[in-house]
Amino acid sequence: MAHTGIHSQPVRSCLLLVVVSVWVQQVDGVWPLPQQLDQSADRNSLSPQRFSFIYGRDSAAQTGCSVLDAAFKRYFSIIFPDFTKGSGLLMSENKSIRYTSVSSVTTVSTIVSCFVVADNLSVSEGQAVLRSVTVWGALRGLESFSQLVYQDDYGSYFINKTEIVDFPRFAFRGLLLDTSRHYLPLHAILKTLDAMAYSKFNVFHWHIVDDPSFPYQSRTFPDLSNKGAFHPFTHVYTQSDVMRVIEHARMRGIRVVPEFDSPGHTLSWGKGQPNLLTPCYKGDVPSGSFGPVDPTVDTTYKFMESLLKEVKFVFPDSYVHLGGDEVSFACWQSNPNVRTFMEKMGFGKDFTKLESFYMESIMNMTAALNRTSIVWQDVFDYRERIPQDTVLEIWKGETYQAELSRMTQAGHRVLLSAPWYINHISYGQDWRNSYAVQPQNFSGTEEQKKLVIGGEVAMWGEYVDATNLNPRLWPRACAAAERLWSDEEKTLDADLAFPRLEKFRCELLRRGIQAEPLFVGHCKHEYDGL
């Protein structure tokens, strides 16, 4: 498993157990809902003292596959939260016989993206078997398996007879964190990645810099954070911090897509990079304030090329988000040098053409670095000449169905975020709004619908820092997680989903995630992490 990317070989994992069976009533519940799930009241008892994960004899992957090795240890603790290895004691006596989880990789073949997962989980009397096409599918299957295990009032562990066939509806299931408007300490990001894995999100969109601050500590341009961060030592992400985030994510089957948004949203960049931003004018003299990146000078493009080369080196993912949204034209309009450049290029007074000129240059740079660009919808709306493999992200909420139609008709792959800006809060169960979203419900052909590759939950940081990040994200983000993973026809009824989400929220609490309540009620194991 190379450190430089989220890749692996096709995998088949088998879980074997021999147990005692009795009949009991147990509410089924896996979040997000698997494509096919059949569960009976027949239950098997489990004993942590006699439970182990091993690799199968026929497995092409053995001990040393870092992702599965770590996952087995992690999920043992998740499945048996009350078991203390030091004492070997359980809350109650449990006389079930040995339970062995065997994981097997069928073949070692070409490298595949972690976008591809599929698994089958069969829990029956005497054994459970998990078969998966990839390591990433095995991780999702282990998550499903962990949610099937439960305890009775005496602390004994059980799992019901279950058959699951599962795969994600959409390949791209993302979550955006904004670390510029408020700095999020490393532990808050890592905990978010843990919760993302529990909900089967697979892309962390790191909106790492913006107008308010530049916390990314660049090797090439150290003054960007020295002068642009809220504090040059306490409020920065060092290179080792970034590596830790990428590795923590990789071990959970999550890609890290960085966003360096320009030409707007760059005020903090200008503090550490002279002559990058456009000087604004009041009449014939500079006003002392600055606008977007100056797209009329060669030094801008040399700087961006150097920065993007570093981004490629530091972030191994094949995608990079280039932003391109909310560019104010007032400063460009006030600047005589910009106006002269516009005339020379034949742009007239149409400043969307100037932004297009800039964004096309940056997207071409990215393509030359063998990276795929993601851009906000503004870039498409300005009719820019966009490389065909560019992914477009919709963030404007009013007319996103019409935008989906236009973008896919132009042949572009699309991400939907507009209805999942969950930094917007309201009283009551607003997760139901997220749950009601139908990403492919727009006017277009079946081929167009296939170009919607997924979506993202966005948590913008104007009013969010480490104090309220987790309660605001969870379990509200879980609604979009299920919409992006599960069969839409089976998950249209929020009332039917509620008890399952309520159960999952309690599971998040037990795993140390401060997920806020859905409504009146209680959890058997309340949050005790403070």
UniProtKB/TrEMBL annotation:
<keyword id="KW-1015">Disulfide bond</keyword>
<protein>
    <recommendedName>
        <fullName>Beta-hexosaminidase</fullName>
        <ecNumber>3.2.1.52</ecNumber>
    </recommendedName>
</protein>
<keyword id="KW-0443">Lipid metabolism</keyword>
<feature type="domain" description="Beta-hexosaminidase eukaryotic type N-terminal">
    <location>
        <begin position="30"/>
        <end position="148"/>
    </location>
</feature>
<feature type="domain" description="Glycoside hydrolase family 20 catalytic">
    <location>
        <begin position="170"/>
        <end position="487"/>
    </location>
</feature>
<dbReference type="GO" id="GO:0005764">
    <property type="term" value="C:lysosome"/>
</dbReference>
<dbReference type="GO" id="GO:0005975">
    <property type="term" value="P:carbohydrate metabolic process"/>
</dbReference>
<feature type="active site" description="Proton donor">
    <location>
        <position position="326"/>
    </location>
</feature>
<dbReference type="GO" id="GO:0004563">
    <property type="term" value="F:beta-N-acetylhexosaminidase activity"/>
</dbReference>
<keyword id="KW-0732">Signal</keyword>
<dbReference type="InterPro" id="IPR025705">
    <property type="entry name" value="Beta_hexosaminidase_sua/sub"/>
</dbReference>
<keyword id="KW-0865">Zymogen</keyword>
<comment type="function">
    <text>Hydrolyzes the non-reducing end N-acetyl-D-hexosamine and/or sulfated N-acetyl-D-hexosamine of glycoconjugates, such as the oligosaccharide moieties from proteins and neutral glycolipids, or from certain mucopolysaccharides. The isozyme S is as active as the isozyme A on the anionic bis-sulfated glycans, the chondroitin-6-sulfate trisaccharide (C6S-3), and the dermatan sulfate pentasaccharide, and the sulfated glycosphingolipid SM2. The isozyme B does not hydrolyze each of these substrates, however hydrolyzes efficiently neutral oligosaccharide.</text>
</comment>
<dbReference type="GO" id="GO:0016020">
    <property type="term" value="C:membrane"/>
</dbReference>
<dbReference type="InterPro" id="IPR029019">
    <property type="entry name" value="HEX_eukaryotic_N"/>
</dbReference>
<comment type="subunit">
    <text>There are 3 beta-hexosaminidase isozymes: isozyme A (hexosaminidase A) is a heterodimer composed of one subunit alpha and one subunit beta (chain A and B); isozyme B (hexosaminidase B) is a homodimer of two beta subunits (two chains A and B); isozyme S (hexosaminidase S) is a homodimer of two alpha subunits. The composition of the dimer (isozyme A versus isozyme S) has a significant effect on the substrate specificity of the alpha subunit active site.</text>
</comment>
<keyword id="KW-0326">Glycosidase</keyword>
<dbReference type="GO" id="GO:0030203">
    <property type="term" value="P:glycosaminoglycan metabolic process"/>
</dbReference>
<dbReference type="Pfam" id="PF00728">
    <property type="entry name" value="Glyco_hydro_20"/>
</dbReference>
<keyword id="KW-0458">Lysosome</keyword>
<keyword id="KW-0378">Hydrolase</keyword>
<dbReference type="InterPro" id="IPR015883">
    <property type="entry name" value="Glyco_hydro_20_cat"/>
</dbReference>
<dbReference type="GO" id="GO:0006689">
    <property type="term" value="P:ganglioside catabolic process"/>
</dbReference>
<dbReference type="InterPro" id="IPR017853">
    <property type="entry name" value="GH"/>
</dbReference>
<dbReference type="InterPro" id="IPR029018">
    <property type="entry name" value="Hex-like_dom2"/>
</dbReference>
<dbReference type="Pfam" id="PF14845">
    <property type="entry name" value="Glycohydro_20b2"/>
</dbReference>
<feature type="signal peptide">
    <location>
        <begin position="1"/>
        <end position="29"/>
    </location>
</feature>
<comment type="similarity">
    <text>Belongs to the glycosyl hydrolase 20 family.</text>
</comment>
<keyword id="KW-0325">Glycoprotein</keyword>
